[in-house]
Design brief:
The protein has no helices and eight strands. It is an all-beta fold and 136 residues long.
């Protein structure tokens, strides 16, 4: 487990991107991080979920995607087990060959969607993130 106190990956020069979940005093985790945890307290650190595998809880395939998002687009809700503490995340899957119960790992993607395809200015938001790839 990694506890980071130096901010998100894009703030650390030259660092590999991380999929940070917030860690709270009661041991709970949230992804994405929230300023106040389930117990009502501020986070005390982060855990890099990209160092863990997760189990697919459920998944779906969207065939009517927003502009710039691949079609079809398979999405999954996954659950990580971080030292006995569960934390769930939702995201794209790298393939449409996924089943409930599969083990996946987060993989960094520089563009989850094509920046110029939407109505927002490409510079107005981040386009990168993590997808889930089945572990064989």
């Amino acid at each position: 487990m990694s506890d980071h106190d130096d901010g998100p990956a894009d703030e650390r020069a030259g660092a590999e991107p991380t999929m940070d979940a917030a860690k709270y005093p009661d041991g709970s985790l949230t992804y994405p991080p929230h300023p106040i945890g389930p117990g009502g307290e501020a986070p005390v650190g982060t855990v890099d979920l990209s160092e863990y595998t997760a189990e697919v809880i459920t998944w779906t395939t969207s065939t009517a995607t927003p502009p710039g998002v691949r079609e079809p687009n398979t999405l999954a809700i996954v659950e990580f087990d971080v030292d006995g503490e569960p934390v769930r995340a939702i995201g794209q899957v790298t393939t449409d060959e996924v089943e409930t119960g599969d083990t996946v790992r987060p993989v960094y993607c520089a563009e989850l969607r094509e920046p110029g395809a939407g109505i927002r200015e490409p510079e107005s938001q981040a386009w990168d993130g993590f997808r889930f790839e089945p572990v064989e």
